[in-house]
Amino acid sequence: MKILCHNILIVDTNYTTAFWELFNNCKLYGKISEIEFEKIIRLKNINLYDILVHKNTVQKYGEIIKNVITDELEYVRILIDFYEQNYSQRKKIYLPDELTDNDIVKMLSDYLDSETANTNCINAISQMKSTKRFPIEAELRLKAKHKYEEKIKEITKQEVTISHGISLAFSPEQIEEKKFDFSNETLYASYSTKWLLDTLDYPSILNNFIYIFEFADVYQMRCTLTSKRSNIGIFEHIGLKKLSSIYPESFSFHSINNLAQMQMIAYTNLLSENNICFENVLKWVFTEYLQNEFQCSEIKLDFPDANSNYSNKCVSLAIVIDSLLITSVPDDI
Fold it and tell me: I need a labelling partner for 213 at 20 to 30 A (CA). Which of 15, 49, 69, 248 fits?
């Protein structure tokens, strides 16, 4: 594929990252017309991120870049990345001033109305806080929350693929308890709906988190949802070393974490459809199972109500965990 830019011929678009760096550093944005620039960035193989990391180029062609972004709803990912970049390790990107806060809100709302909206993007929108650049109102967050819940419920009814390199499915036809496959850079995880529906007693539900969803290893019951140094690539290790004060969240860790979140949401929805509140399962462990199995003293805990919202549940569970830690400390310490 060839790119012609002000009599400059770029033959291989694999080098477009370097091209746009040179374009910005050599100040070619002062020589290339807006018409020529728009022809280039609308080519299929152009990665808009390569341009957005260069502030001067973005400022020069602000109106064009704004039109390109607003023309494609899939570019909502750019808006989300821009919003989250203060909390991520991605290279900083810039949005043109011509892209107003009203444009951003409208684009987010239109994206939620689209049939192709990605589950992870919907979830990200539902958690956005209002800022000057992103004046997200409660109605929009609620709209995203409802859309996200609808998407997740579909997982428990049929095989539904969630992108970002992970596909999770609850399959009514599957015989095996669980199956994993990796192809086309995507991890495919599928679970037997029949198995899950046949194991709805409290002990089996907890065992499913160990043996089916693999939240803990079988032999020592250690949590598997941790970031392991051995799974961090050499280049990731160099980048994380500069940020030694934060938890090392590698690509591998994000993949495991994303899969675990999807498993938890899909499974708790399945339990809810069968009139089982997962909080009651946890309560049973500490208020009945431990006493009956190990003859330990009675533990009185106030678990959140099943009808509480997620915010209240998180607060209540934090208090419960704190109470458990205090209760487990020997008196002579």
Answer: 248
